[in-house]
Amino acid sequence: MLVYYILTLIISYVWADGVSFQREQPVCPPGWLAWQDACYILLPDKMNWWQAKTVCDRPGSSLVVPDSQEEQDFIWREMRSRMEKIVGNSTTKLQLWIGCTDFDNTGLLTCIGVQGRPGFTKWSKGNPHTDEGQDCIRMDQKYEGRWGDSGCNAKHFGACEMRVSRRLYCLQADADGRFTPQCLLNHEIKNLTAAGVIGCGQACWAEPRCHSFNLWQKGDDKKVCQLNNASSIEADPAFLKKVESCNFFDL
Ligand SMILES: [Ca+2]
Ligand SMILES: [Ca+2]
Q1: CATH number belonging to domain 2-26+174-250
Q2: Distance from the alpha carbon of residue 156 to the mean position of ligand 1, in angstroms
Q3: Most exposed residue of 27, 38, 197, 222, measured as fewest CB within 10 angstroms of its CB?
Q4: DSSP letters spanning 204-223
């Protein structure tokens, strides 16, 4: 099988983007907003807390959890302006689910990805209610972005947060260790323009169906990022073809 005679070389983003060793901002998939070591996106439709949690629940990504005053301020500032573009600035419409709940009715909260109780909370006056039925937490315009608890079936906006790892991708080489320009054909989900392998890898990472990607060099500095619905092991090896100006990466 293909994997037996292919050596896997690990390459870093240094090679991939060919630009520099350090980045001030993470490289986020298209449509996501970079802040510190994470990427953020507003879900464009209102939905209940469970639905928002499910939509955001992908590898490395979850419903947003503000972990500091700075992150709270960033999330509310950016997401409020995006919500306003969709529904206007009515105080009753601008509410954003976060990844925290109060199902034990202690008011102490449980937040996605946080061990134990969260170190940062931002309750508004009069919240939390420690009664049953108000178990999911939202940021609310009427409290200037501070938190209130709410029935989990209410429909609000939500936002996802994706941690950015220094994720490495596998570039496949032949038995002599040389890179083989090759790509997986007939498995594409979508094509995007991308600066390099990290941007393309993030896009693949953010797309649940994406298991690998092709990076096509088109002209001098244009790259096309092609997301595939199968990895090299899952796909029929016949579709992994030698193609000049194309490189293939398993996620
Ligand atoms: Ca966070
Ligand atoms: Ca509760």
Answers
A1: 3.50.4.10
A2: 19
A3: 222
A4: HHHSTT--EEEEEEETTTEE
